[in-house]
Amino acid sequence: MTRLLAPPPGWTVSADVVVVGSGVAGLTAALHATRAGSVLLVTKVLVDDGSTRWAQGGVAAALAADDSPEDHLQDTLVAGVGLCDVAAVRVLCTEGPARLRELVELGAAFDRDGAGAFALTREGGHSRDRIVHAGGDATGAEVQRALVAAVRAHPGIRLVEHALVLDLLTDADGRAAGVTLHVLGEGSQDGVGAALARAVVLATGGLGQVYASTTNPSVSTGDGVALALRAGAEVTDLEFVQFHPTSLWLGAGSAGQQPLVSEAVRGEGAFLVDLAGERVITPGDHPLADLAPRDVVAKAIHRRMLERGDDQWTSYVDDGKNAGTTDAALSADPPTTGSGRRPGVAVRARGAHEPESPARIRIIGGGPTNDVPDSYQRRLSHLLGVLAAPEGQEWWLAAGVKELQVAYYFERATPRVRTRLHRNVLAAGIERNGPGLNHVPDPATIADRDVENLVSAVRKRTGLGPHPLLPG
Ligand SMILES: Cc1cc2nc3c(=O)[nH]c(=O)nc-3n(C[C@H](O)[C@H](O)[C@H](O)COP(=O)(O)OP(=O)(O)OC[C@H]3O[C@@H](n4cnc5c(N)ncnc54)[C@H](O)[C@@H]3O)c2cc1C
C-alpha cells in the first residue's frame, strides 16, 4: 500500500495536553484537561462541524422520580443482547444524571415541563421516559453551543480551527508525545507543523463517511482510529457501528450526509410501511414493534427491501392522532447538506379513518437470547403482540390501566409471573429458566402458558372479565 507523506513540520508549538476534535467529547475533555495545565484544542474544519451538532432526539439519563440508574442499566443490557461491557454501561447509567447536570451548569438549556423539571420523552429500548432534549429536536446543537462557549471563555484553552491532524508523534518508548498537523491560514502556523504535549486526547468522532450512505457529517472519516493504528495503538470493538434505521431518501445518486428521520417520529405514534403500504415491523415480529432497538428495526427494513427489491427507504404513516407532531418533527430537520434545499417529505396521516387508541400499551424488555429456543421466543412475541392489539384496549381501560409494561427475564430457576399496579401503569414480569426451555418437547406451549398466567394475574388484580382474545 502506498502511503501519502506530508512534508516535515515547518513549525512547532507546545502545550501540556493536545485535544484533537471539537465535538462533545473533545470539548468536554479540553475543559477537564485544564486541571493538568495548558490545553491546545485542534479541529479539522470549524469548531461545530462534527456529529454533535446534528444529534436530535436527546440524551438518555435516569432523572425521573420513577426511574433509576439500575433500571437504565437493565434496559441497556437487554438492548445490548449480551454484547455490552457491563462495567462501562454501569458508569454510563450511574454517572449520566450528574454529567447532564454539569452541562446545565455550563449553560445548556434543556426543555422543561410546566413545573420546571426536565421534559422527558421515550425512545426505543427504554422502559421509562428518560430522554432529555433541547429545542425540541435540536439537542446536539444546544450541547455544542454551551460547550463551545465554555471553551472559548476559558483562558487555559487555545482553540485552532482548520487544523487537520495527520499523525501521532511518539517518544523513544512509543508513548504519544504530540501530533503533526496541517493548519490552513493560522498566521505563522500555516502549513504542516508539530504540536508537542505530555498527553494527547483523540476525540475525532465516528467513521460513518466510509459507508455509501450515512447521517454523519463529512468530517466523520475515522481519522483518530487510523492515526492511532499507524502509531501502534490497539483498537477494539470497531464492529460496533450504529446503523440508524431511518434516513431520508433523497433520490438515486444522492451522496454524502443524508438527513436523519428521528426515532422521535415513531415515538410519537408513526409507524413504518413499505412501498406497498404493509407494516414493516409488527408486535408479532418484536414486542416493541416500531420502537424495538435500532438494530432490530434496521434489519427489518433491510430484509423487507431485499424481499421486495426496493431501493428506497420505507415511508412513515402516522396513526392519525399525532399528525401535527409528526409533520413538525420532520420539517424541523435541518436543510440538507450542501445544496441547502429542504427535502420534500410526505407524511401520510390516516386521521379519522383509524380508531384513536386512548390507552398506551408498552411491551418492554426481553431481547432475543441465544439460550432460549426460537419457537418459545416467536410464540411469546406473537402473544404479547395480541395482548397489545387494539381489540383488547377496552379490556385494559375497564381496569383503569393506561399503560401496560411487560418485561420477561430468562434467568430464574423457578418460573413465575409478577404484576404490579401503580396509578394507571401495570407492570408485569414473566420469569423463566431460559436454558431449561431447550429440554421441553414443545417450547411454544410454554409461551402460551406464560401469557395465560399473565392474563390471569391481571384479572385477579383488577377483577376484570375474560380478555377478548386470550385465555387466562
Ligand atoms: C444525525 C445524527 C443524529 C444523532 N442523534 C443523537 C441523539 O439523539 N442522541 C445521542 O446521544 N446521539 C446522537 N447522535 C450521535 C452523537 O451525535 C455522537 O455520538 C456524538 O456527537 C459524538 O461526539 P464526538 O465528540 O465523539 O464526535 P464529533 O461530534 O463527530 O466530533 C469529532 C470532532 O473531531 C474532528 N476531527 C475529526 N478528524 C480530525 C482530524 N484528523 N484532525 C482534527 N480534527 C478532527 C471533527 O472535525 C470534529 O470536530 C447523532 C448523530 C447524528 C449524525
UniProtKB/TrEMBL annotation:
Catalytic activity reported: L-aspartate + O2 = iminosuccinate + H2O2
GO biological process, one term: 'de novo' NAD+ biosynthetic process from L-aspartate
Domain FAD-dependent oxidoreductase 2 FAD-binding: 16-310
Record-given protein name: L-aspartate oxidase
Feature: compositional bias, Low complexity: 338-349
Pfam families cross-referenced by the UniProt entry: FAD_binding_2
UniProt function note: Catalyzes the oxidation of L-aspartate to iminoaspartate, the first step in the de novo biosynthesis of NAD(+).
Pathway: Cofactor biosynthesis; NAD(+) biosynthesis; iminoaspartate from L-aspartate (oxidase route): step 1/1
Keywords for the protein's UniProt record, in alphabetical order: FAD, Flavoprotein, Oxidoreductase, Pyridine nucleotide biosynthesis
InterPro entries per the UniProt record, alphabetical: FAD-dep_OxRdtase_2_FAD-bd, FAD/NAD-bd_sf, NadB, Succ_DH/fumarate_Rdtase_cat_sf
Start and end residues of each stretch annotated as Disordered: 324-353
Top-level class of the enzyme under EC nomenclature: oxidoreductase
Reported cofactor(s): FAD
